[in-house]
């Protein structure tokens, strides 16, 4: 047990672990994380098996990385605790220095005599210390007085508070990892979805995309209603950066997309032989329009948002985004197919028509209307609050560690031949230059004072 | 006066400041350094006005693309330098530091950096943009001064070791102490702006406070390097060369977090 504590209380271990964790983290940014086995094989060849076996492909979740973090945390705990008790003793039960020699071996020191009696000199010094906001302790004897002036002793614990904050942050990370839950929900307008692992539902009342004048997206806004037992409790409009929090869940606007189930298609029908002929129709997939003068039925047979010729020369969609919207139009005369044609919204001149009978129709796919769905991420992250508390301690600790340096001045006053001999020493681990200036300033004025 | 004209005037003022600092370095007279310092202060003023104009013009914080953020980093660096020189009298670092600032300004004005103010994408519409970016970059500006003083330390130290004269004014001990002071200011700022504010904003915008995105990871790496600096120095008593070496590494990590990640690694922070 003793050697265990000795091992983990070493700062050298902390530094070695810090270096290893840093190098591992760098490695994780150089090798793309969470990709497919095939991608790693293509990128790294034979090496990829090793990378996957060593979990370098999911490094930050790898058992060995987590173990390193665990060892590091243990190291922080033990380092902090073993250094805490002498500091606590120094802060809470300070000892007064009684030996002049020890004070005069310090770097920051003063040594002088005054033609005053012991009491008066002690009073004068005490006043000067208190003026500079030192709290003074004293130990009076007949022939000598020991004084101790201290300030900002909280600053001693800056690093401990930082470490405590870090441990809370790590704890928060563990809680998030174990108890966190997140899922993506897709809402159409009007749709109600029960929130997984919760006993309330959400309804999307309204979804809108706002644009800047130049056409880029300004914001997505989803108006959500929270429903419990079939009753609406309240509604809130969420947007990017402004999520909804309710009962431990947070709902984020995370994406959007088109609902391609039932789009309205705007088609224009033209004739090769008659340039003045132009007819606009709005239809959905499956709808049929009758062209009396041609004795023909026009049907919208199929729609794809991102047209591509896929495997086996079959039409497919590459994505769910309207990158290349296309509609398949069929013409029928008395039950027989006259033609079938793809019309492309983005490439009006590029039509592909298979005709089996004579006709002179042309189609332009002018526009489409599709409902947009709202992508909402539901997250329950029980570790988040620990993170904020930890960050609070971290910042508070850093501020006092750097900007609230503790200062101690110890004095031994002795009397002989009607004179009082003063020896003083200053102790500060940080900001020594400023302390030295303050110290010298104080003792110069004490020396000169009558 | 337009923002771009003010930016140009600022650039010229910084070049003048550098010119006088170098005149001081070579002439060994004190006056030019004082003039350089005044040019830097006037430059900081015109630069501030330029940033305010940019904010009014674009309607958002002036650090949403590379041009804006370089300009803001140059502004932070000048401000940090004016404070540090005022407090610690490190004039000898002035000429070299001015070169960094001029480098930043030159990069910002290079044709590679798109200058037009574009409307904010939804993810950036948050007051955390102000807090996260400004505090982080101001912290990095102090790291930059620590970098220069550490390099000067390494140079002064090897000169002194070779038995060269200890130049009056800026001794190696002082450079070592000033490097520490800069990191002591930069580290809390970087922690607050880069890591804490970054986590809060990520939680608000993306729904998770930490995603091991390359930029996040690199800011943590930077933080680790400076943590290493502080622990080796305070607990193990490292000073001088080894300390200066870690400070240089830390700044390079910060620089990579700022530039390298954007151009070499891909991730959530793809905008800036």
Give a verbal description of the structure:
The complex is a heterodimer of chains A (450) and B (272). Chain A is α+β, with helices and mostly antiparallel strands. Chain A has 4 domains: 2-90; 94-152 and 405-448, 2-Layer Sandwich (Double Stranded RNA Binding Domain); 163-259 and 373-396, no CATH class; 264-371, no CATH class. Helix content of chain A is 33%, strand content 37%. Chain A contains 10 helices and 23 strands. Chain A has helices at 2-8, 11-30, 37-44, 47-53, 63-92, 100-104, 118-131, 158-179, 384-403, 432-448; strands at 108-114, 135-140, 144-151, 181-187, 192-194, 201-211, 217-228, 231-239, 244-246, 249-258, 264-271, 278-284, 288-291, 296-304, 307-309, 315-317, 326-333, 336-344, 352-355, 361-369, 372-380, 407-416, 419-427. In chain A, strands 1-23-22-3-2 form a 5-stranded antiparallel beta sheet. In chain A, strand 22 and strand 23 form a beta hairpin. In chain A, helix 2 packs antiparallel against helix 5, helix 3 crosses helix 4 (47-53) and helix 5 (63-92) runs antiparallel to helix 8 (158-179). The longest helix of chain A is centred in the first third of the chain and has 30 residues, at 63-92. With 272 residues, chain B is mostly helical. Chain B has 2 domains: 1-115; 129-162 and 169-272. Chain B contains 8 helices and no strands. Chain B has helices spanning 3-27, 31-58, 66-88, 94-109, 128-161, 172-205, 214-234, 241-264. Chain B is flat, with a radius of gyration of 19 Å. The chains are: A alpha+beta (450), B mainly alpha (272). Chains A and B meet through helix 2, helix 8, strand 7, strand 10 and helix 9 of A and helix 6 and helix 7 of B.
Overall pLDDT metric of chain A: 90
Q: What's the gyration radius of chain A in Å?
A: 39 Å
Assembly classification = heterodimer
What is the chain-wise order of helices and strands of chain B? HHHHHHHH
Helix-and-strand structural type of chain A: alpha+beta
Helix share bin of chain A: 25-40%
Query: What is the number of independent domains of chain A?
Result: 4
């Amino acid at each position: 047990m003793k050697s265990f504590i000795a091992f983990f209380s070493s700062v050298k271990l902390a530094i070695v672990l810090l270096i290893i964790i840093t190098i591992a983290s760098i490695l994780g940014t150089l090798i793309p994380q969470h990709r497919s086995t095939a991608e790693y094989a293509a990128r790294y060849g034979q090496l990829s098996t090793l990378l996957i076996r060593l979990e370098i492909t999911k490094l930050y979740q790898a058992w060995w990385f987590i173990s390193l973090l665990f060892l590091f945390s243990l190291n922080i705990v033990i380092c902090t605790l073993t250094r805490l008790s002498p500091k606590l003793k120094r802060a809470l039960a300070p000892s007064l220095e009684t030996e002049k020699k020890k004070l005069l071996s310090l770097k920051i020191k003063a040594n002088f005599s005054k033609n005053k009696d012991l009491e008066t000199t002690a009073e004068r010094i005490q006043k000067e210390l208190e003026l500079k906001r030192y709290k003074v302790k004293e130990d009076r004897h007949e022939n000598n007085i020991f004084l101790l002036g201290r300030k900002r002793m909280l600053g001693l614990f800056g690093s401990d508070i930082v470490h405590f904050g870090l441990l809370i942050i790590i704890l928060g990370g563990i809680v998030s990892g174990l108890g966190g839950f997140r899922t993506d929900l897709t809402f159409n307008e009007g749709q109600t979805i029960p929130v997984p692992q919760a006993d309330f539902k959400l309804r999307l009342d309204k979804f809108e995309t706002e644009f800047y004048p130049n056409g880029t997206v300004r914001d997505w806004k989803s108006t959500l209603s929270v429903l419990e037992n079939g009753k609406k409790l309240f509604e809130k409009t969420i947007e990017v950066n402004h999520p909804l929090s309710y009962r431990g869940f947070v709902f984020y606007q995370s994406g959007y997309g088109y609902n391609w189930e039932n789009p309205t298609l705007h088609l224009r029908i033209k004739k090769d032989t008659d340039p003045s002929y132009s007819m606009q129709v709005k239809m959905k997939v499956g709808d049929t329009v009758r062209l009396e003068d041609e004795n023909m039925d026009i049907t919208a047979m199929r729609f794809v948002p991102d047209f591509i010729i896929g495997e086996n020369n079959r039409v497919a969609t590459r994505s769910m985004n309207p990158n290349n919207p296309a509609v398949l139009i069929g013409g029928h005369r008395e039950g027989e197919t006259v033609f079938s044609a793809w019309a492309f919204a983005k490439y009006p001149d590029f039509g592909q028509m298979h005709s089996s009978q004579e006709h002179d129709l042309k189609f332009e796919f002018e526009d489409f209307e599709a409902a947009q769905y709202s992508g909402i991420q539901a997250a329950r992250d029980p570790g988040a609050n620990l993170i904020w508390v930890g960050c609070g301690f971290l910042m508070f600790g850093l501020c006092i560690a750097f900007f609230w340096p503790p200062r101690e001045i110890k004095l031994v006053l002795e009397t002989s031949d009607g004179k009082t001999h003063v020896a003083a020493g200053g102790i500060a681990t940080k900001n020594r230059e400023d302390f030295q200036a303050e110290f010298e300033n104080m003792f110069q004025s004490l020396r000169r004072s009558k | 006066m337009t923002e771009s004209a003010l930016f140009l005037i600022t650039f010229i003022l910084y070049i003048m400041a550098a010119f006088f600092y170098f005149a001081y370095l070579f002439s060994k007279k004190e006056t030019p350094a004082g003039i350089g310092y005044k040019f830097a202060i006037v430059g900081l003023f015109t630069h501030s006005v330029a940033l305010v104009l940019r904010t009014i013009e674009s309607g958002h914080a002036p650090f949403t693309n590379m041009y804006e953020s370089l300009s803001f980093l140059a502004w932070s660096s000048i401000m940090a330098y004016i404070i540090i020189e005022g407090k610690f009298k490190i004039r000898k670092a002035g000429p070299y530091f001015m070169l960094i600032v001029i480098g930043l300004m030159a990069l910002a004005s290079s044709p590679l950096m798109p200058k037009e103010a574009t409307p904010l994408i939804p993810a950036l519409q948050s007051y955390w943009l102000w807090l996260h970016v400004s505090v982080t970059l101001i912290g990095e500006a102090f790291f930059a001064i620590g970098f220069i003083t550490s390099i000067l330390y390494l140079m002064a130290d090897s000169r002194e070791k070779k038995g060269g004269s200890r130049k009056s004014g800026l001794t190696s001990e002082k450079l070592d102490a000033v490097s520490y002071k800069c990191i002591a200011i930069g580290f809390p700022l970087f922690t607050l702006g880069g890591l804490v504010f970054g986590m809060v904003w990520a939680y608000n915008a993306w729904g998770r406070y930490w995603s091991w995105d390359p930029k996040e990871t690199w800011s943590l790496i930077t933080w680790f390097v400076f943590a290493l600096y502080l622990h080796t120095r305070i607990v193990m008593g490292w000073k001088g060369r080894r300390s200066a070496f870690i400070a240089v590494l830390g700044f390079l990590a910060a620089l990579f977090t700022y530039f390298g990640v954007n151009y070499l690694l891909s991730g959530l922070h793809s905008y800036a």
